[in-house]
Design a protein that fits this description.
The complex is a heterodimer. Chain A is mainly beta. Chain A has three helices and 37 strands. In chain A, the strands form ten sheets. Chain A has a five-stranded mixed beta sheet with strand order 1-29-30-33-34, with no helix packed on it. Chain A has a four-stranded antiparallel beta sheet with strand order 2-37-36-35, with no helix packed on it. By secondary structure, chain B is mainly β. Chain B has a single domain (6-517), classed as Quinoprotein alcohol dehydrogenase-like superfamily (Methanol Dehydrogenase, Chain A), CATH 2.140.10. Chain B is built from two helices and 34 strands. In chain B, the strands form eight sheets. Chain B has a five-stranded mixed beta sheet, with no helix packed on it. The chains are: A mainly beta, B mainly beta. The A-B interface holds A 137, 139, 149, 151-152, 219-220, 244-246, 248, 266-269, 271, 280, 302-303, 305-306, 308-311, 313, 315, 365-371, 461-471 and B 1-4, 25-28, 87, 89-94, 96, 111, 113-114, 157-158, 161-162, 165-171, 189, 191-192, 194, 520-522.
Chain lengths: 540, 522
């Protein structure tokens, strides 16, 4: 089996102790054998970096097309529909070895599909009665779940995670349904590998599996994050409550090399005098001590009162990476600054001093709904060792913030590319490029030097002059347009591809998956799109 | 994203601990919704996240911003007292807004944390005539919906929208109400300044409207000085009614006294003070109680030959509903709302010794009142000239030649209630009605030139005026804690400060809004 030697950055990652998959090449076809994408953001550091892409190149990506699309039939709840796709490159199924995708729908649906044919292999649906007080946010007399409040849709909002093969070669899919039950599903056929058991209810975000520990950041749950050892027969659930504001990062937690789970807390207060202490508007790291979750470190911005007053919490998932031998965290949020933090002491001696804080790069309007950085940051390292941080954002670029390379006025959102610099132990971020305008820039994936992003097309307002504040999700859905996939050069932000109007619906809190030459995106209407290249176009 | 459960938490905190207990925790603050803060015209902000005696122990209180609005003064009228909406979830996000009326029929909405204009609106109305100082033909009052009790923040995100829909970003009625110089009542969308409904006729053109206040769905406003051929008195209109008919109480020759117009007593009645009137009339130089529905007079107290100079202020003390107002005789009158003047309508519960020798063309305008943690009740009054002869004005904070703020404490002796002077402030020139914020009295030495010479034009008076100065005083002692020095460059035309959410606002004749406070890191 041939091993492709990747770039210098791969060896740096290996030196840092990160798992980098070798890239086998199928002997008969000459194409690389398909690899996995087992968790949201591709790894537990939530880098969004797909290091092993070789099929899609800057040269041929302009030929992307919709290879297939599947209408899953998932029932929308509030604005949620499908979550990001997971991929198992080679899975033994009853029909032989297949490249299989897994995607969940908000209405407690789990789908497995055959990547090549774009057909559903199996699907499961769970029914349950929500425990009292844990149901969705009902804001309308209309019983259609599309009218539910968008803050609290109920259902299965978490993106599953796929574990390694067991002794029988079975791949477990860990998935939490809206009743808080953890399901361990055989990816090959949808059967239970382990009887389901209670994990935690709430609005769960993307799951992490680190060794034998399953993590789920959460909100509307009374806690911020929960963890369980999947091989613990007692199923002891460990929790940590940051005391204020739920965790809102879409990719859930980012795990550093020490096993500390980092997440951002939403709108809330910072009050160490309360019992338990409250860490609202913060970046919080917790780790396992014995069989409990304990606070490891945290960073609370000094202007947290202002952030709370205007609902500008750091609501996206941070990303963890190593730069010149030092592990760092990058974080952002609705306020629209970039922060660099030291995972050893995220906020320094006073817990309020980051390694670096940028000026505001967007959200000049101070608007919690149509502006700011949402979802998750991403990071990658280019071929010459430059470390990049990529921030999706909504709304215009701040008028006083300058990127070196621009691509026309940005009004509705986009992606900012920042290059990390270290001088005498001090870190900063150079704003190198900003993409062209996107209707609500969403978390990106980096593959083969390209940045894959999308504008969700979502109407993100929660209040309107004529109707005031209204949480009925159907209002926003009716005002939304459609998602658009963009591919830009990772060094310049130059556009290499956009999907135009091929995607006909918008999406809410979704995410991209880019692996084995294919790009996956789901939409509000329950459609899963697969973009890729025709065989003949791969060399063009 | 929003912290779950907060609306419930806020409701519980409010129920247990009063209006502003939760505000120190962050979002929003108390709302100054009408002239003198609330329907009782207390000019009192009970708690505040940043203003306190403790915070004044160290430097930090300062000018935060100023904003010169493009408003043309009419005679001496310029800007109204800013009304506050500490938190609205608008189509552009969470906003903290100060609404200011401009005499030339302008309404401004300023994000008060950022000094950023959110919207401005010019009300189309008939062209203004030249006017006079007394009758400037100007827009003189705006308001927000005001609860009968002290103002409380509206419900949280997810609360039901305002009755009638639209506009409101956070539940409750967050609309802005403005009465144009043409007498039209506008209901403005707080998010945009657009009319929510067609304007309704409330007053004749060029009436001098004072102290508009919206209680539930009824707008009350007083008129004074007989401007625009309008009978002085009180007008009310139920905006929820189909007919939009106006109810009216006429003061029969007198004028309505004070800058805050009508006052809602803690007993539910409406109180108005008068300045002059037909001799022998019940309404002359009187405090009159009105039925809030019909505006029919229910009771009155007459001070005799001397007019009242302030709007009444209302509060409860040991179960009694009390009314206090200042009179041109230099005294404060304490009245029992249950029987304003006793059987003869001329007997107050008590009256103070004259606190002021008075000065030409000066009227105190409005009072302020607050309650200390120990339950003691205080009343604060602006006074012109040196202290009145023979007055025991309590401890002094320097010689007074021009005027001062005088602080009284309500005391009970042998079963009778009276106000006892505790302190007088430093000297101030034509002080405006003060405001009390969490134990701090904010008073403005307005610098306004006062004269009984009716020949002096507005321009001549403006030219002779001096810049205003804002003072922060310890409410217990009157000790000066801070002053704005020469920060303010114009005078103030009788408009007291408004305050809330850590900031204090002063509006000047030249159309500038000043915001003072302790900076919040952004």
């Amino acid at each position: 089996m041939k091993i492709i030697v990747f770039c210098a950055s791969v060896s740096l990652c290996c030196a840092a102790g990160w798992v980098v998959r070798d890239v086998p090449v199928a002997a008969q076809t000459g194409r690389p054998a398909p690899i996995d994408w087992v968790t949201d953001g591709n790894d537990n550091q939530r880098t969004g970096w797909q290091r092993n892409e070789t099929i899609l190149t800057k040269k041929n990506v302009k030929n992307l097309k919709v290879l297939w699309k599947i209408q899953t039939g998932n029932q929308v709840r509030a604005l949620h529909s499908l979550m990001p796709v997971l991929i198992i490159g080679r899975l033994n199924t009853s029909n032989g070895v297949r490249e299989v995708g897994i995607v969940n729908g908000i209405s407690d649906n789990l789908y497995a599909f055959d990547v090549e044919s774009g057909t559903i292999l199996w699907q499961k649906h769970w029914n349950y009665t929500p425990p009292p007080g844990s149901g969705p946010q009902t804001v309308s007399t209309n019983p259609d779940p599309a009218h539910l409040g968008f803050l609290r849709p109920g259902g299965s909002s978490d993106t599953p995670v796929i574990g390694p093969a067991d002794a029988q070669g079975r791949r477990p899919v860990y998935f939490v349904t809206g009743d808080g039950m953890l399901h361990t599903i055989n990816a090959a056929d949808g059967s239970d590998l382990v009887p389901p058991y209670m994990f935690h209810i709430g609005k769960g975000w993307s799951l992490n599996l680190v060794g034998n520990v399953l993590w789920m950041a959460n909100t509307y749950a009374g806690i911020s994050i929960a963890a369980v050892r999947v091989d613990d027969p007692s199923h002891k659930v460990m929790t940590f409550n940051a005391g204020s504001g739920g965790a809102w990062g879409r990719r859930g937690a980012a795990i550093d090399s020490s096993g500390t789970a980092w997440f951002t807390t939403g709108d809330g207060v910072y009050d160490l005098t309360s019992d338990p202490p409250r860490y609202g508007n913060s970046v919080v790291g917790v780790h396992i001590v014995g069989d409990e979750l304990k606070l490891k470190s945290y960073f609370t911005p000094k202007n947290w009162e202002w952030l709370r007053k205007r609902d500008l919490d750091p609501n996206n998932t941070p990303t963890v990476f190593t730069y010149k031998g030092r592990e760092l965290i990058a974080a952002s949020g609705k306020e629209c600054r970039m922060f660099l933090l030291d995972p050893q002491s995220a906020g320094g001696a006073d817990n309020q001093t980051p390694l670096y804080k940028s000026d505001l790069f967007c959200n000049e309007e101070v608007d919690f709904q149509d502006a700011g950085s949402w979802g998750a940051l991403s990071t990658w390292e280019d071929q010459v060792g430059n470390r990049w941080i990529l921030a999706p954002f909504w709304g215009p670029v701040h008028s006083k913030f300058k990127f070196e390379i621009t691509h026309g006025p940005v009004m509705a959102g986009g992606v900012g590319g920042f290059r990390l610099r270290e001088r005498n132990g001090k870190y900063d971020l150079t704003p190198v490029w900003v993409s062209a305008d996107m209707k609500r820039g969403e978390p990106v994936v980096i593959a083969n030097g390209m940045v894959f992003g999308y504008g969700s097309g979502e109407e993100t307002k929660q209040s309107w002059p004529d109707i005031g504040l209204n949480f009925d999700s159907s209002i926003r859905a009716a005002k939304s347009t459609h998602a658009t996939l963009y591919v830009v050069d990772g060094l310049t932000g130059d556009e290499l591809y956009n999907s135009g109007d091929q995607i006909t619906s918008f999406n809410h809190f979704n995410g991209l998956t880019v692996v084995n030459g294919r790009v996956y995106i789901g939409t509000y209407d329950g459609t899963l799109y697969c973009f890729g290249l025709e065989d003949t176009q791969r060399t063009q | 994203m929003r912290e779950p459960g907060r609306p419930v938490a806020v409701a519980i905190v409010l129920a247990l601990a009063g209006a502003s207990a939760a505000h120190a925790q962050g979002r929003g603050g108390s709302n100054w919704t009408t002239t003198s803060s609330d329907a009782q015209r207390t000019a009192w902000v009970k708690t505040d996240p940043r203003i306190s005696k403790e915070s004044f122990q160290k430097p930090g209180f300062q000018l935060l911003w100023k904003n010169k609005l493009e408003n043309q003064p009419r005679q001496l009228e310029s800007l109204t007292q800013p009304m506050l909406l500490s938190n609205i979830i608008s189509y552009k996000g969470f906003k903290a807004l100060a609404f200011v009326g401009g005499s030339s029929d302008n309404v401004y909405s300023i994000d008060y944390d950022l000094n950023k204009m959110f919207w401005k609106r010019h009300l189309n109305t008939m062209p203004a005539g030249p006017g006079t100082i007394a009758c400037p033909g100007a827009m003189t009052t705006i308001t927000r919906a005001t609860p009968l009790g002290q103002t409380t923040p509206p419900a949280g995100r997810g609360a039901p929208p305002a009755p009638g829909g639209g506009g409101g970003g956070r539940g409750g009625n967050t609309n802005v109400y403005a009465i144009s110089s043409g007498g039209l009542l506008h209901t403005l969308n707080p998010q945009t300044g657009d009319d929510m409904t067609p304007p309704v006729k409330l007053l004749p053109p060029n009436a001098k409207a004072v102290g508009a206040v919206l209680i539930d769905t009824t707008m009350y406003v007083a008129t004074r000085d007989g401007c625009g051929s309008t009978a002085n008195g009180v007008y009310a209109i139920d905006l929820a009614s189909d007919s939009k008919a106006t109810t009216h109480w006429e003061s029969k020759g007198g004028s309505v006294a004070g800058t805050a117009g009508v006052t809602f007593g803690t007993d539910g009645n409406l109180y108005v003070a008068t300045d002059g009137g037909a001799p022998g009339s019940n309404d002359a130089n009187a405090i009159v109680a009105l039925d809030p529905k019909t505006l029919a007079a229910r009771d009155w107290f007459s001070a005799g030959s001397t007019p009242f100079t302030t709007s009444p202020v209302a509060f409860t003390y040991k179960g009694k509903d009390l009314i206090v107002a200042a009179n041109a005789d230099g005294r404060l009158y304490v009245l029992d709302a249950a029987s304003l003047g006793g059987a003869d309508h001329r007997t107050p519960l008590s009256k103070t010794a004259p606190y002021s020798a008075g000065a030409a063309d000066f009227a105190a305008g409005a009072l302020a009142t607050s309650e200390n943690a120990d339950g003691s009740r205080w009343v604060f009054a602006a006074a012109a000239g040196p202290p009145g002869g023979g007055t025991n004005a309590g401890s002094a904070n320097g010689a007074i030649t021009n005027g001062a703020v005088v602080a009284y404490k309500l005391v009970e002796q042998n079963g009778s209630l009276s106000l006892q002077a505790v302190w007088t402030s430093r000297d101030m020139l034509s002080p405006a009605p003060p405001a009390v914020v969490n134990g701090i009295v904010f008073a403005i030495s307005t610098g306004e030139f006062r004269s009984a010479d009716v020949q002096l034009t507005a321009a001549q008076r403006a030219q002779r005026a001096k810049p205003a100065v804002l003072y922060a005083l310890d409410a217990a002692t009157g000790k000066e804690l801070w002053s704005s020095g020469n920060t303010i460059s114009s005078f103030v035309r009788g408009v007291g400060p408004s305050a809330g959410d850590g900031q204090v606002y002063v509006v000047t004749y030249d159309g500038t809004v000043y915001a003072f406070g302790i900076p919040l890191e952004h």
